[in-house]
């Protein structure tokens, strides 16, 4: 996906009704020794980092349970859409663990330190409406009879992104992600570097031409 220039947006959904991702299989985990558990979690953390580093926007469609590593997967995405009936939580402390695939880092960056600590310390599960009210998800929608309301809303969101200039969207994502990790002056420099890369693109010229000619732009990603 990272290397496929035709990919504009990636939507993560589940094929299992009522479950986005329920996290690690604790029965399987119980059969592992300490070294195997450490190796497993490092690989999982690396996977989440790779998802977060995808250059195109990513959307998690949460139509059911997103618990533990399942919520960490959603947090690794840029945007999250949840059904109001979905259940989310970093429940690791209820199993004698702590989040190990990015949850302790991405949740506070998403909802703030105080809320993140409360959710992680208590292992509490919240529904889609609660997640929306605290900014954990971008949108919440009533579940439908098919059980894919969040996926349908995620597709609609993806279709809003699709017509926009692909390279500009990628540079916007890069500038935001890198800028959030540094002070604002350094962030401004990062934005400037990303903007400079966008200036010579054909899409920028097309955007200007379309505006002058009062027509929709036809972006190619070049």
From TrEMBL:
<dbReference type="GO" id="GO:0005739">
    <property type="term" value="C:mitochondrion"/>
</dbReference>
<dbReference type="InterPro" id="IPR014748">
    <property type="entry name" value="Enoyl-CoA_hydra_C"/>
</dbReference>
<dbReference type="InterPro" id="IPR001753">
    <property type="entry name" value="Enoyl-CoA_hydra/iso"/>
</dbReference>
<protein>
    <recommendedName>
        <fullName>Enoyl-CoA hydratase domain-containing protein 2, mitochondrial</fullName>
    </recommendedName>
</protein>
<dbReference type="GO" id="GO:0006635">
    <property type="term" value="P:fatty acid beta-oxidation"/>
</dbReference>
<comment type="similarity">
    <text>Belongs to the enoyl-CoA hydratase/isomerase family.</text>
</comment>
<dbReference type="InterPro" id="IPR018376">
    <property type="entry name" value="Enoyl-CoA_hyd/isom_CS"/>
</dbReference>
<keyword id="KW-0456">Lyase</keyword>
<dbReference type="Pfam" id="PF00378">
    <property type="entry name" value="ECH_1"/>
</dbReference>
<dbReference type="InterPro" id="IPR029045">
    <property type="entry name" value="ClpP/crotonase-like_dom_sf"/>
</dbReference>
<dbReference type="GO" id="GO:0004300">
    <property type="term" value="F:enoyl-CoA hydratase activity"/>
</dbReference>
